[in-house]
Amino acid sequence: MPFPGSQMMNSIDLAYFLFSYRWIFRIGFCLLILLTFLKANWNSKWVPVTIILFLSVIIYIINFKMSADQMFLQTDQLIMAYAGENKVDTSRIIIGVEKNGFANAYPVQFIGYHHQISDSLNGEPVIVTYCTVCRTGRVYEPKVKGNYETFRLVGMDHFNAMFEDEKTKSWWRQVNGEAVAGELKGEHLPEIFSYQTSLGDWLHLFPYSLIMQPNEKDSGNYVSENYETGISRSSLTGTDSLSWKDKSWVVGVNLNHHTKAYDWNKLITQRIIHDKIKDTPIMVLVASDNKSFFAFKRKSSDEHFTLKNDTLLLNNQQYELNGRAIGTFVSLKRIPAYQEFWHSWRTFNPDTKVY
């Protein structure tokens, strides 16, 4: 958990060791406390009783009530609905997945609290994750060595959410699906290509999509619109409106393990940035809602696209925001792109280039 200074240290191995043997430490410390109490001379029997009760409450709160999976509960009722029955404002940001004519959308306001949503897409299990302190949305196939797993939130490291699998108790980073402690250290969860858009843009692209709906029981914990729009100034989840500060927004692009970061303010101004990663021409764009973004490969550096009314144009060719060709042209090739706080992208992509 984010105690002062804890997130700036490389302490994951020590944390995992202490957590793995926590009951041995707990019992040992309790015995030491008990021994001290038995040897002490008390003026009143109520003094040790009061101290023991006080310590018990503190230990219970720290070890149980303040544990990550008790502070950020999983939803016990996942409600999905089509657009006709949708109750989510279409201006809200979603993490979306689409495959073979099936599409699901998960509003950040919900998954930002839960941190993970277990669901399925066309019968295939998925785990949709989000970390508000890093502003990272990721979707994974919850499969470990060929078997489907369940996960629980155990805390955070370098400000990124950490999950534990039920079978081996290994710890997995939310930002890249890597096991960083435990039996499966070094393994990775298979990532599923995902989008981050406004719900309105998503339904324009995928009108047949299912949308996660609010659960009355959890409504008091949902992430506010201030977080999504960037006007929150919270020390952990707030946004810096200037560029290249720790809490500034960037769009990070990953092409064959070569990464590059693009300033969100510049993207909003230019709408489309034409660039190269290594020798591959690419482009990154932001839609007119200032929320939906996409990245694509270009065939050559000579291709220069324009954006008009959220339609991509190249000479007489037209494309939807997700690169799908309008007409008989070949659709554009999407590449992974993520909106994150700058401190997160540079921490987990230390070799990143900067545009």
What's the SSE blueprint?
Layout lengths: L11 H9 L1 H18 L6 H20 L2 H4 L8 E2 L11 E7 L2 E6 H7 L1 E6 L2 E8 L4 E5 L2 E2 L2 E2 L2 E7 L2 E6 L5 E3 L5 E3 L13 E4 H7 L4 E3 L12 H5 L19 E7 L2 E6 H7 L1 E6 L2 E7 L6 E5 L8 E3 L2 E4 L2 E3 L5 E2 L10 E5 H7 L4 E2 L1
**Overall pLDDT:** 92
The helix content, as a percent range, equals 10-25%
Q: Structural class given helices, strands, pairing? A: alpha+beta
Q: Which term fits the overall shape?
A: elongated
Rg calc: 23 Å
Low-confidence stretches: none
β-sheet strand percentage: 25-35%
- What's the total count of β strands? 25
End-to-end CA span = 33 Å
How does this model look, in words?
The chain has 355 residues and is an alpha+beta fold. Helix content is 24%, strand content 32%. It has nine helices and 25 strands. The protein has a five-stranded mixed sheet. The protein is elongated, with a radius of gyration of 23 Å.
Summary tags:
single chain, 4-stranded antiparallel beta sheet, 355 residues, 5-stranded mixed beta sheet
